[in-house]
Design a protein that fits this description.
Strand order of the largest sheet: 2-1-12-11-8-9
Helix content: under 10%
Structural class: mainly beta
Radius of gyration: 13 Å
Order of helices and strands: EEEEEEEEEEEE
Strand content: over 45%
Number of helices: 0
Distance between the termini: 7 Å
Largest sheet: 6 strands, antiparallel
Number of strands: 12
Shape: globular
Length: about 120
């Protein structure tokens, strides 16, 4: 199976930037046998999604992971946290939570959302 992910940056210096990831382009870490895809988010240059302009993002801050036919958001014990929208307040992510396309989440001070994902043939 091959997957595609479109991720939209919703705030900060890169506001409006849409990023495209594909498992067949070696974006992220794709484990064929486990049917799992891992996208790293952080300030490090070798992060799949490098947020170098957000000083509130840790070097290795969070993972977006495709597993069990859905997306998961995992905070990696970052200093400034990972959050999801929850009504009037933002809810801090502890550990790993499921996340749906269109749901806003924040890494450091940068808001983003999964635009869509699809299976390629």
């Amino acid at each position: 199976m091959k997957l595609m992910l479109d991720l939209m940056i919703m705030s900060g210096v890169d506001d409006g930037l849409q990023l495209h990831y594909r498992t067949d382009n070696s974006d992220g870490q794709w484990e064929t046998e486990a049917n799992r895809w891992l996208i790293s988010i952080g300030r490090r240059e070798d992060s799949d999604l490098c947020l170098r302009n957000d000083s509130f993002v840790s070097r290795l801050h969070a993972y977006l992971r495709w597993e069990q036919e859905r997306w998961w958001l995992q905070d990696l014990k970052s200093t400034n946290g990972t959050f999801v929208e929850a009504g009037d307040e933002d809810a801090r992510v502890t550990g790993t939570i499921p996340i749906e396309p269109g749901e806003m989440f924040r890494v450091g001070h940068t808001w983003m959302r999964i635009q869509n994902e699809s299976t390629l043939t």
